[in-house]
């Protein structure tokens, strides 16, 4: 498959009639220099698979554990899905209206994240933060995600699972940004995906 696609790229350039529109083609199109090879693209694809598949499967596993531990959420979640699908069908607009599902996912990520810390970085040279703290070269630093997600000054009853915590906050007076309480929204209070340009 790789060789066939590279041959078409060689023959037709970057565009042809039946050019596939998939991740493999995107990676092949973006590859430059020595990376524009079967081995180079395969390495990139494996890296992406490693970074995405295990995180998604671990999160989904935690969601299932939370549902089993809290069966009172099953009916309201199912009712929301039934109502939205009846109205919208299986569309992006429909999925965007599933606030309880989204809230349940975010609350699960908040309490059962993929690690205690995120955004690990190694200082390659001494670095001074804006508050004057300096870290020497070779220092490993990270953001305390788990501690942030369990901080009582940010979340009331922070250690208690509340599957609809964020569904209630959506549309509240604290919700000044429409998407602020969605699972995928990052902030200094929701670090599951990192923050800023370090968001994954």
From TrEMBL:
Keyword Oxidoreductase assigned: yes
Cofactor: heme
GO MF assignments: heme binding; iron ion binding; monooxygenase activity; oxidoreductase activity, acting on paired donors, with incorporation or reduction of molecular oxygen
Keyword annotations of the record: Iron, Metal-binding, Oxidoreductase
Presence of keyword Iron: yes
Family, similarity comment: Belongs to the cytochrome P450 family.
Protein name, per record: Cytochrome P450
Annotated source species: Russula ochroleuca
